[in-house]
Amino acid sequence: xxxxxxxxxxxxxxxxxxxxxxxxxxxxxxxxxxxxxxxxxxxxxxxxxxxxxxxxxxxxxxxxxxxxxxxxxxxxxxxxxxxxxxxxxxxxxxxxxxxxxxxxxxxxxxxxxxxxxxxxxxxxxxxxxxxxxxxxxxxxxxxxxxxxxxxxxxxxxxxxx
Length: 161
Known about the structure:
- InterPro entries: DUF1468 (IPR009936).
- This is Tripartite tricarboxylate transporter TctB family protein.
- Keywords: Membrane, Transmembrane, Transmembrane helix.
- The chain is mainly alpha-helical.
- The chain folds into 2 domains: about 1-70; about 80-160, no CATH class.
- About 75% of the residues lie in helices and about 0% in strands.
- The chain has helices at about 1-35, 35-40, 50-70, 80-105, 105-120, 125-145.
- Helix 4 (about 80-105) runs antiparallel to helix 5 (about 105-120) and helix 5 packs antiparallel against helix 6.
- The model has no long low-confidence stretch (mean pLDDT about 80).
């Protein structure tokens, strides 16, 4: 009986690796396709705007291939709560990407961090309030004042200098 259970777990692990690898390869290929227009603008010796995203996409594809050829070790499938946390994290990232432009960096990032902290079950209420706000504000000020890189502005950013 135990051998059948181990074999099922190994098959499920292998199938999960293949599905994850396929998704990662698709993401890498998408990045290459999306940066095609940027690559045309690049000069000969300078990697340009497409260089770094393409490097990351290449590494992502290489790691996906390594994942696809990896043998399942018979690990147990993730628990239901673990799977729900992963799904929640994916939904949270998508919501953050969609909220960034209309809400601005500060509001969207603070909400994202609050959601992420709730997902990982941070129990201290002071941390749930202070960390997202302080982190978002510090990163915004560093990028906008030190580096001169504009981040998406929303109603809250309009109150800042």
